[in-house]
Design goal:
The chain is an alpha/beta fold. The protein has 2 domains: 170 residues, P-loop containing nucleotide triphosphate hydrolases (Rossmann fold, 3-Layer(aba) Sandwich); 68 residues, no CATH class. Helices cover 31% and strands 25% of the residues. It has a 6-stranded mixed β-sheet with strand order 6-7-8-3-9-10, sandwiched between helices. A hairpin with a 2-residue loop joins strand 1 and strand 2.
Length: 248
C-alpha cells in the first residue's frame, strides 16, 4: 500500500550536538530529510554517521539540539512502530532459522506468514530460509537483520552501511528494493562510505569529522565541483570547504 507523501520533512534536526567524553562528535548539525525518498549519508569512517543515526532513532544521548522524526521527538513511544533501524552489526538470533528470526519481529507488528516470506525474499535469502543464522556468512546475517526491519513496513527506515560485504549483484538488487520502498512512500536514510552508491540517492548528506559539509543532489555535487565521478567530487568538496564549516 502506498503511503501519503507530504512536503513536511520526515526527519528534522536543529542544532544537534553530541559529546562523548571530552570529544565533540557532532557539531551543531542542522538538516532535514525529505519524506518518501532515499537520502544518502556519506563520509569517511569515523565522521559521525552512526552517531547521527543513533540520535535519529533515539538511542544516542545528545548534548543539545532537537531531533524530530515524523513530527515527534526522536525516541518517542509513538515512533516505535514507525521507525526501523538496521545497525552495522547483524542483530539476529543465531539459534533460529532465517524465517524464525523474521517471524519473531513480524509477530510484534501483527504480520502474516506471507509478509515474512516477502521480507526474506526481498533480501535474497529464500533458499536459506530454513538455515539457522549461526550457519550463515556475515553478509547473509546482515541481510537477515534487514529482513527483520523490512517485515515491519516502517514509515522511516534507517540503514547503517547495509551493503557492506555484499556481492555486486546483491547490492544492485538491494538498491532496487530500496527504490521500490521509496516509491511506496517510505523514507530511507542510508549511510555508506562508498561514493559510487551515491547515485542511487535523491539527495546526499556529506559529513566529515562530525561536521555537515553539504546537503545536495548528486547532480548538484557534480556541478558544484565540476567533477563527473562522485568520489572525485567529494574529495574536491573537502578541499574547498572551510574547516568546520558547511560549503555554500
Amino acid at each position: 500500500m502506498r503511503r501519503t507523501v507530504t512536503t513536511t520533512p520526515a526527519i528534522d534536526i536543529r542544532g544537534l550536538r553530541v559529546i562523548r567524553g571530552k570529544h565533540e562528535v557532532l557539531h551543531s548539525l542542522d538538516l532535514q530529510v525529505s519524506a518518501g525518498s532515499i537520502t544518502g549519508l556519506l563520509g569517511p569512517s569515523g565522521c559521525g554517521k552512526t552517531t547521527l543515526m543513533r540520535a535519529i532513532v533515539g538511542t544516542q544521548i545528545v548534548e543539545s539540539g532537537e531531533v524530530r522524526v515524523l513530527g515527534d521527538l526522536a525516541g518517542s513511544v509513538a515512533l516505535r512502530r514507525r521507525v526501523g533501524y538496521v545497525t552495522q552489526s547483524p542483530s539476529v538470533y543465531g539459534d533460529l532459522t532465517v524465517t524464525r528470526n523474521v517471524q519473531y519481529f513480524g509477530a510484534l507488528y501483527g504480520k502474516s506468514g506471507a509478509d515474512v516470506a516477502a521480507a526474506v525474499d526481498a533480501v535474497g535469502l529464500s533458499r536459506y530460509a530454513d538455515r539457522t543464522a549461526a550457519d550463515l556468512s556475515g553478509g547473509q546475517r546482515g541481510r537477515v537483520s534487514l529482513a527483520c526491519a523490512l517485515v515491519a513496513s516502517p514509515d522511516v527506515l534507517i540503514l547503517d552501511e547495509p551493503t557492506v560485504g555484499l556481492d555486486p549483484v546483491l547490492r544492485v538488487e538491494l538498491w532496487e528494493r530500496f527504490a521500490d520502498l521509496a516509491r511506496s512512500g517510505t523514507t530511507l536514510l542510508v549511510s555508506s562510505h562508498v561514493m559510487d552508491e551515491a547515485d542511487h540517492c535523491a539527495e546526499l548528506i556529506l559529513m566529515r569529522d562530525g561536521h555537515l559539509l553539504a546537503q545536495l543532489t548528486p547532480d548538484e555535487l557534480r556541478a558544484k565541483t565540476r567533477c563527473e565521478r562522485l568520489e572525485d567530487a567529494f574529495l574536491e568538496l573537502i578541499r574547498t570547504s572551510p574547516v568546520g564549516g558547511e560549503i555554500s
